[in-house]
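Lesson 9: reading folded outputs for more than one chain in a single document. The general rule is that every protein is listed as its sequence immediately followed by its structure tokens, and records are never interleaved. Here is the first one.
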Amino acid sequence: MTRLAIIINQDRCIGCQTCANACKMENNVPMGMLWNRVITVGAEVVDGAVGTYPNLTREYLPMACQHCDNPQCQLVCPVGATYTDDKGRVLINYDICIGCRICMASCPYNARVFNWEEPVRNPDFNYGHRDVPVRPRGTTEKCTLCKERTDEGLEPMCVTCCPTKARTFGDLDDPESAASVLVRERQAHQLLAELGTEPKVHYFK
């Protein structure tokens, strides 16, 4: 078995948005959409702060699809467009997706976006990995753990480009992988673990 995962060190995250932009470029994500985003915890705006000057704090929470072992999006998809592959990645078959958006409603991590109109890209051509499928109007899309890269044995682009090395990629079913070691030694936690979705993305500080 293989269960690909990303482990995130929140103390290292500086909110630079490099992961979001690297993901967008690698995966041909249209304008106005992000698969990867960085939330400023407790703040009302991106890169805001919590508290009253001079006693301010700022904490960043990188967010994307959690690639759950028990994905609610997959359970509710009426046509089987959402599926888990043999590497543990939760993916979407865009040829089957009917755009009902039930998966979006069921995801507790708000991890999907929807193509309401014909996708617009600037520059006016497709970019990123040559094998990334182009998603048409009327379909949902989300993080794939850079399937095309990881199929080639490479890391997801967000991991490769993170300037502070806040992200670690690996196989949770390999006890010797860097990802498994971090989960054990740093007691990394899952978001909304109480829901039983069993995310493969873990966080620690």
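And here is the second record, again sequence then tokens.
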Amino acid sequence: MNDFRQEAESLWGETKEFQESVGRTKKYSHADFAAAKIDQEGATELFVYAFGNGLGVRSANAQEAVIVHRAAISKWFYDCNIEMQKNLAVLYLSDDRFKKYYDDRVRGLAQYVHDAIMAQK
């Protein structure tokens, strides 16, 4: 088991979302994981577009990115409701690995993604 998987299991192993994700992903091929990454990258690019064009976190474009982000997680890993997505958004700022993922794209993107997710109704 890799370090990330061990960490995730120690933090969330008892949750239904973690169990659902493990159940789904253990059946995935390399092609499935590649397709999941493409979907996640697509959502990130929608955030990059909205942020890079100075659109507010409540703009239609930013909120479309929020929806696509949640849909990609639900499609590939676990049913991601709005509350769970907001929990993830907190990690995007508090966990340096997530923050780096977004801020390596565009400085300040992690905060924007967090704020856009938190702004949804």
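What the second record shows: The chain has one domain: 16-119.
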